[in-house]
């Protein structure tokens, strides 16, 4: 099992940046793919970015390509999401999720954090 805790959210003006962190506890963090998802009020939770267990492969939703960067430090059991050029439509609760085999299907992820709020003002 793995436990996930997100941090780094906050209130930022449009065009600003944040770095979100997903800290994991538990065994064998490096054997999990990690995804970042977000959920805006009244909307479904959507995939933002994924990083593979060995850090080689990344995936981004079209809406964030070129603005968000996912990375991980397996020695620190942490995954990061650098979010730049933020827009009001990026406002959401951001969640990280872990699974050994899941990739871009939300329901396949077995472990979830509690989320961190990102609010972008115009």
Folded structure, characterized:
There is one protein chain. By secondary structure, the chain is mostly beta strands. It contains no helices and eleven strands. The strands form two sheets. Strands 2, 4, 5, 6, 9, 10 and 11 form a seven-stranded mixed sheet that branches. It has a four-stranded antiparallel sheet with strand order 1-3-8-7, with no helix packed on it. Strand 7 (68-73) and strand 8 (78-83) form a beta hairpin. The radius of gyration is 13 Å and the shape is globular. The termini are far apart.
Describe, in short, the structure shown.
With 122 residues, the chain is mostly beta strands.
Uncertain segments: none
Mean pLDDT: 96
Number of strands: 11
Number of helices: 0
SSE order: EEEEEEEEEEE
Please state the overall shape, judged from the principal axes of the Cα atoms: globular
Q: Which structural class should the secondary elements be placed in?
A: mainly beta
As a percent range, the share of helical residues equals under 10%
**Rounded radius of gyration (Å):** 13 Å
Strand content: over 45%
- Distance from N terminus to C terminus (CA atoms, Å) equals 40 Å
- Biggest sheet character: 7 strands, mixed
